[in-house]
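Hey, resending since the last one bounced:
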Amino acid sequence: MNMTDYFNGFEAVIDLHGLRIEEGIEQLERFLDQALLHGESEVKVIHGHGSGRLKSAVRAYLKKSPYAAASHTGEPWEGGEAVTIVTLKRDR
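The structure tokens again:
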């Protein structure tokens, strides 16, 4: 979280684990839109391990998303395979 986030209340993390795929993707899309509006350059998406279906759906969505410039699996200290880190497009 950067200092701007501290003052405007936006946290650059969303927790989707436990949601159905459709609901998770809808929430992710709204979150990414808000992240760009708040000037974020990178966000953390927590999708958990579970069956792996939500993680796969999130990563497939990000590949075609107009919001995402790139994404990668979280580092071990970020949550590893249960997390995807997204670099946002700045030229939307």
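Strands lie at 13-15, 42-46, 68-73, 83-88.

Sorry for the duplicate.
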